[in-house]
Design goal:
Elements: H1 2-58, H2 64-91, E1 94-96, E2 103-105, H3 120-124, H4 129-134
Antiparallel strand pairs: 1-2
Helix pairs in contact: 1-2
The structure holds zinc ion.
């Protein structure tokens, strides 16, 4: 009696997987757009900060408080950018370093943290001790 339910469940499962893939793509696109926006915000805040420093120096004014405020804003924007970046990484193809466990992007050749090679050979070589045994 369970057969019909099994088929139904399988169909439902496939549909859910397909739906998930599509929504993942939409989500990544959204995140990337948000990242681009944030990068633009950072650029314009940095530009504003530069102008603020220039103007205040020219006018011989103390703008330390405003500069602090500007820098805090930029820090917030960087945090936001990093959060978005790690979210995108969660969705995209990624390579985890076998040595230190750092997540690197799919196109990376070396680990950004420890510099270990991330090539397919490294992934395939499950047991490095075996090489020594062969020799
Ligand atoms: Zn590493």
């Amino acid at each position: 009696m369970g057969t019909f339910e099994d088929v139904l469940n399988k169909a439902k499962c496939v549909a859910e997987t397909a739906g998930k893939k599509t929504s993942e793509f939409v989500e990544v696109t959204k995140l990337k757009m948000e990242m681009a926006d944030t990068e633009r915000e950072i650029s314009s805040t940095l530009e504003g900060l530069g102008r603020l420093v220039y103007d205040s120096r020219k006018a011989n004014q103390d703008s330390a408080a405003m500069i602090e405020e500007c820098m805090a804003k930029i820090d917030d924007q960087y945090v936001k950018l990093e959060t978005l970046r790690s979210k995108v990484l969660e969705y995209s193809d990624q390579v985890r370093c076998k040595v230190c466990g750092t997540i690197n992007t799919d196109d990376s050749l070396f680990c950004k943290k420890c510099g270990s090679k991330l090539s397919e050979e490294t992934v395939k070589a499950e047991d490095p001790d075996q090489k020594e045994n062969d020799a």
